[in-house]
Amino acid sequence: MTSGPATWPAATTSTETTVGRWVREVVGLLAACAPRLDRALKKIARTGGGVVLLDGSLIRTRRRTGTANRKNYSGKSKCHGLLVIALTDDRGRLLWVSAARPGRTSEITACRHDKLRAHLRAVGLGAIADLGFVGLDDTDDPEQTRR
Q: How far apart are CA 79 and CA 95, in angstroms?
């Protein structure tokens, strides 16, 4: 027997539209309870942590029709999907997950968009990441490049 959102209406005598609305409401409630990036990093700094682990992951999706399919295609992974960036503590416990971005977005661009470097520096934490993040710590400040 299969289970999933498509089979729920038959089991609950609710319509598929109603079940979809319930799922969206639950996802919204869970997102509202998720910790903000600055609070999660401050908590790690308070507990004595010195580094966080940083990684990006492509969540595969189905190909969309028309021109909307182009932005979700990842040339690196050769598939359609959405990119998320995750921060974990040194034991691998999940601290924060970014908003989903189109699959064509690179990991370093997503981190720059979220201003991860500034958040990490504000609380005095370092990050351990893979080679997809090389150059994230490069300075954009002309004052620092002249020294």
A: 27
